[in-house]
Amino acid sequence: MASKAKGKRVVKLEYQLVIDPTVCDGYGYCVELLPANLIFDDWGYPIIKDRCIDEEHLELAYRAVKLCPKLAFRLNKIRNE
Amino acid sequence: MALILSVLGTQIMWYVTRSSGFIALLLLTMTVVLGVSSAQKVKVGKVPRVYFAELHRSVALFALVLLAIHIFTAVVDPFTKLGWTTAFDPFGRTYRPLYLGLGVTAFDLLLTVLITSLLRDRLKQRTWKTLHFLSYPIWLLAIVHGLGTGTDSHYSFALVIYGICLVAVLISVWVRILDSGIERSLLRFSAYALTLFAPFLLLLWTLLGPAKASWSKHFVSTTIPAHVKTNSLPSEKEAGE
Fold this sequence. Notes:
The complex is a heterodimer. By secondary structure, chain A is α+β, with helices and mostly antiparallel strands.
């Protein structure tokens, strides 16, 4: 996506995950989908290891957004210039 | 030749309607079971739970495809004379009105559940969840619709399918109730009562009605072969009302 702007100023898009801990019920789908970014705590709730989603994991991250039963998992798009 | 083709055509529609109905019911049952068990965080071996959540979605959509086929073939079948508006309108039908109406009601409710699920991120979580509970009555309506419409209800294969569906959902619901917390005991109690009472009534009604070979006879339409010309339809209309 970002690499299309070849030569010119490169706008790099970055995707960061956000989990609302007050809503999260510990279904754990996001942890199962994104083991590179999240781990389980002792009670089965997600702990964020790395907020930033790699391009290759983006589709999985979108699936986590879609599947989260509580809609506690979100993706933020951040523009880095 | 054209007559043979048209006869074959309507017959095929009729067979597809019936079989897709059964498959749709099995898929809906699977959807309910998957939904109930993923809601209570059931873990099967080392299989990630997210698989069941994904499967719940996919099977539900697949069931809708089968339902689309079921309804399409039923409407297109010239014998039923249903018409497109009756695909969504549960009332005012002449062909097996009550039990078809229940099926259409179930379909309308299912569309509600589908749409609210697709727009889940724009709704209040509570609204979505409340509407999602419609799935239970939808599933029950689907079974009553299938049994009551009754073309195959006296066959043992059909009764076995209905039995499998009933047992599967009952087990998963009971496990769910047993697993839920002590709080909201009134809700739990009424759920128990309902899951004991409703299947009992369903069983009784099935044995007294649809399971008998004579059940579908009182829909005059089933005794008329599908290739009979349309001039016999007025009598069916009277019988249906």
